[in-house]
Amino acid sequence: MMQAPPRPNRPVYLDNQATTRCDPRVLAKMLPYFSEEYGNPASAEHVMGHTAEAAVETARAHIASLLGADAREIVLTSGATESNNISIKGAARYARTTGSDRRRIVTVATEHKCVLESVADLGDEGFEPVVLPVGPDGLLAPGTLRAALETPTLLVSVMAVNNEIGVIQDIAALAAIAKEAGALFHTDLAQATGKIPLDLTGWKVDLASVSGHKLYGPKGVGALFVRRRPRVRISPLFSGGGQERGLRSGTLATPLIVGLGEACRLAAEEMVEEAARIAALRIDLLTRLRAAIPGIAINASMDARIPGNLNLTFPAVTAADLMARAPDLCVSTGSACSSAEVEPSYVLRALGLSDEAASRTLRLGIGRFTSPADIEYAAAALVAAHAGIPAEA
Length: 393
Known about the structure:
CATH topology of the largest domain: Aspartate Aminotransferase, domain 2
Structural class: alpha/beta
Strand content: 5-15%
CATH superfamily of the largest domain: Type I PLP-dependent aspartate aminotransferase-like (Major domain)
CATH architecture of the largest domain: 3-Layer(aba) Sandwich
Strand order of the largest sheet: 2-8-7-6-5-3-4
């Protein structure tokens, strides 16, 4: 008779699209800036301010290098949510001040909520939100974007990698279509940075957003890319001391910025080897699950997908029941929870899944610190949970 696998010494974490562990090397780089080197990088009058400023600029250069950008194009923020808001609202509001008659803002049904809500908010300010569909593979068809841009458009926002299904959009091709139509192009890089090669300069992207905690850096820090040539202008969201060229006022969080810079430096050095290792772990996990659970289905494209993501619909058991039966396995549904109900994922709905199928779907995120033993446990735990076997007490 099948038994539940023995409990691990600590929970097995397969939710790396939600957040990642801060790499110990990143933490070590940050620590001095919480204690010994605590100067304000805006304090240009003394040596401790200069030391902090130099650390910030070194980090900025590492971020820019990973993105394929110039360091002068990097604005430091609190994360991708803020960067997305500044990009979308800032571009629209600045265009309005110039007398531009373009009001259309185009995005995609599977975008992160902060992008969808930012675009929706602009609808209350006289702009025209347009939300485009994706195919069952999760990808935006170039023809769909071209058709939408037959009407003069101010801005297009398409995420590079989806946070639930892991699919990789062809940002270079989509940005080229937007530029041909005279529109600005923004991309949310939160799930792409450090996972796939990026070339914002070559891709003709105008604005892009990064989040530190998605690439083994600290939470609470991110970056915004703003193209210099041709120069892209946006309005800041709030007023203050004028830091970050006036686009993001407020005292810079030097320790967090140093951490983001180090995370980007490490990603640049290790991304190729890491992707290959993670892809092998994903193959192992999928092979084990398919062998034991016939009928398991993969959602969206497997070819255009980051190595660490699996989004799987199980044939007979809800995701909630699977997680309850495997409490030492950290995975997610991608659903938005409230005290009253669990709402099926809008991303899965956009792929054409029914609410019932979405309720049987889990997101599995493999990362830098996932081991072969973790994969072995995760597969055994999910197989046992699907068979109705509760976790070992």
